[in-house]
Amino acid sequence: MIRYSDIINKNQREIVLLKASPCVWGKCTFCDYIEDNNSDTQFNVNFNKEILKNVTGKHKVLEVINSGSCFELPKETLQDIKNIIDSKGIKKLFFESHWIYRNRLEEMKQLFNIPIMFKCGIETFDNHFRCEVLKKGAVFSGPEEVSKYFNSICLMVGIKGQTKSMIKTDIEYLLKYFKHGCVNIYMENSTPFKRDEELISWFRDNYSFLEENDNIEILWNNTDFGVGGN
């Protein structure tokens, strides 16, 4: 498992994949990423300290991800991140957060005192598919409500059961309501969900132009940011 990477294309930044306590939601039917978490807080603290030693501050931007939300990182790890931000002169931070923490984002802003790009995994704005099929646990009225809390969202493309119409709407909302976005092309894992290769091919033919947008990142493979593993 690769835990540190230097993203040198769009939105240049360093990125670390840390360990945290179990995802507070943990019910997404398509996700086995949560298997990377650990209930041993002290183990996580020590483990994360070693990963964070790789951060140089070269781009003045840092992204921190884990198998859940930034709020599940140990408090000591958060302080370690804060120390690195201060010592390396980092000016911007990327964090991930589940929708369930939407009313606590200010806590992180006050702790780090630098601009934070909060990324929220919406997956799709189709309510039935998101809530009943993917079991995402994010209930909201529409993109306007999401944009009140999050300036960046993650969408999923290519799961069997999705439609072209869903994806068209999702991309439309992404471009209209959000400053930044990440489109994750679904990779099969240990869950029963399968890739829709025809849908992915259609997306590639019709939406590859998004790669020219500085604020949109497409992960054709889930390790395209240089971290993670099989």
SSE inventory with pairings:
Layout (H helix, E strand, L loop, with lengths): L3 E4 L5 E5 L23 H12 L8 E5 L9 H14 L3 E5 L8 H8 L3 E8 L3 H7 L9 H5 L4 E6 L6 H14 L2 E6 L11 H11 L8 E4 L11
Parallel strand pairs: 2-3, 3-4, 4-5, 5-6, 6-7, 7-8
Antiparallel strand pairs: 1-2
Roughly what percent helix? 25-40%
Any idea what the shape is? globular
CATH topology: TIM Barrel
Structural class determined from secondary elements: alpha/beta
Per CATH, the superfamily is: Aldolase class I
Count of individual helical segments? 7
Main sheet: strand order? 1-2-3-4-5-6-7-8
* Topology as a string of helices (H) and strands (E): EEHEHEHEHHEHEHE
Mean pLDDT across all amino acids: 96
Distance between termini?
8 Å
Task: Give the oligomeric state of the chains in this entry, treating copies of one chain as homo and distinct chains as hetero.
Answer: single chain
Largest sheet composition: 8 strands, mixed
* Annotated CATH architecture: Alpha-Beta Barrel
Radius of gyration: 17 Å
**Structurally, how many domains make up the residues?**
1
User: Which CATH class?
Assistant: Alpha Beta
Protein name: Radical SAM domain-containing protein
Organism: Clostridium scatologenes
Describe this structure in words.
The chain is an alpha/beta fold and 230 residues long. It has one domain (4-219): TIM Barrel. The chain is 31% helix and 19% strand. The protein is built from seven helices and eight strands. The chain has helices at residues 41-52, 75-88, 105-112, 127-133, 143-147, 164-177, 197-207, and strands at residues 4-7, 13-17, 61-65, 92-96, 116-123, 152-157, 180-185, 216-219. It has an eight-stranded mixed sheet with strand order 1-2-3-4-5-6-7-8. Helix 1 (41-52) runs parallel beside helix 2 (75-88). The longest helix has 14 residues, at 75-88. The protein is globular, with a radius of gyration of 17 Å.
